[in-house]
Amino acid sequence: MATLDVLISTTAPDVPLPAYAHPGDAGADITTRVDVTLAPGERATVPTGIKIALPDGFVALIHPRSGLAAKHGVTIVNAPGTVDAAYRGEIAVTLLNTDATQSVTFARGDRIAQLVIQRVERAAFVEVERLPGTHRGEAGFGSSGNSTQPVDSETA
Q1: Cis peptide preceding 80, ω within 30 of 0
Q2: Residue 92 lies in a domain
Q3: Within a domain: 128
Q4: CA dist 10 to 6, 17, 31, 48, 99, Å?
Q5: Nearest to 46, CA basis, from 67, 68, 25, 26
Q6: Is residue 155 part of a domain?
Q7: Neighbour-count burial for 134-149, b at 16+ CB within 10 Å, e otherwise
Q8: Whole-structure pTM value
Q9: What is the pLDDT of residues 105-147, one digit of tens each?
């Protein structure tokens, strides 16, 4: 598997670098650099202590950790979060505790999210009078699982 060099710096010497838990993992775990407690329904933007320099043509996506979601109801408000190649500030993660009754506490160094690096394409947006048709047409949310949804014959 090919690797991509990503330059990284930390806000303090003891901040853990992102790390892959298992061979073949897409996401590298990132941690909190502060202690934080989220009450039920509460959200907080949590600093990670890491800054990265991605090559042009790449993006870092911040994904929730499935274990935190399943065990504690913790997710990321804007999942996936986007870290553009030109951004050089500290990465922070806006966590949300969706549990209705239980608070959740993270200590400095606890894993809170996953960092996924992906190649991106730049689009040239070309304005047209009309888009080419498809079998789906303009059918929106839920339409791929609803066979009773009418098909727009103009775009099909």
Answers
A1: yes
A2: yes
A3: no
A4: 13, 8, 12, 9, 31
A5: 68
A6: no
A7: eeebebeeeeeeeeee
A8: 0.83
A9: 999 999 999 999 999 999 999 999 999 988 888 877 776 665 5
Q: Find the radius of gyration of the CA atoms of the chain.
A: 20
Give the closest residue to 81 by CA, choosing from 130, 42, 116. Answer: 116
| Model confidence pLDDT, tens digit, residues 73-115 | 999 999 999 999 999 999 999 999 999 999 999 999 999 999 9
Alpha-carbon span 93 to 78, nearest angstrom = 9
Query: For strand 36-38 and strand 50-53, is the pairing parallel, antiparallel, or unpaired?
Result: unpaired
Report how far residue 78's alpha carbon sits from residue 114's, in angstroms, rounded to the nearest whole number: 13
Sign of CA dihedral 109, 17, 1, 75: positive
Both tokens assigned to 9:
């710096």
Structure tokens at 83: 């870290």
Contact yes or no for 98/72 (Cβ under 8 A): no
| Domain CATH for 36 | 2.70.40.10
- Structurally, the chain folds into a number of domains equal to 1
Alpha-carbon 147 to chain mean position: 32
Whether 26 contacts 119, CB under 8 Å? no
